[in-house]
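seq as requested:
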Amino acid sequence: MERRCSAGRDACGGCSRTARARRNEVKLLATGYVGLWLDLVRVPPSGTWERRRADLLAAAQDWIGPGDATEAQGLERLVQRYLGAFGPAAPTDIASWSGVRARHLVPVLERLRLRSFRDEGGGELVDLPRQPLPDPETPAPVRFLPVWDATMLVHARRTGVLPEKYRRLLFSAKNPASANTFLVDGVVAGTWRFEKGAHRARALQAPGSGRAARARRGGGTPRRAL
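struct tokens:
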């Protein structure tokens, strides 16, 4: 593996290579698990609208400079960037998203001196210090979400956004891509489609839910905004 990595660095030689162009010379750029050992980056115009195939590779040290960060610094940066986007979050969520074992993140979280909270179930949440938090009573506006929206297709099931009683109405073997949905009070309340220049919304029917009525009353606001 070390010989292959060395050959890959020599082959890149300070410039980019396509995975296919030098297959005979550097097979590692196209196959195997060498990417786990050799730091490569995909460089423009690879993966753009003009060049759809993302196969233009270069040595990371030539493109972004030599890497002098330690593993500990890398883990700290990883946690900071995650919390900057998704915090407050549970430590287990950070581990699940990053693929880093939770026990390896414990000393990282301790070094960062993060803020600590408790969720409704008593579980621990952490966040970066001095990050603004909305007032708990802040109303959540009605939102239209498209198919494949990341809010629905996350790495962990979020019943706070999509109640389990609605999940089978949106995801099934016949409809794996889900559907356009809209949120009321921050929770999925129905589906929508754009038809003849207007949004057509349909509330999901579930026992004991008052969101459908609120959706009908407040549905005009997001339509006008869109």
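The two ends are 53 Å apart (CA to CA).
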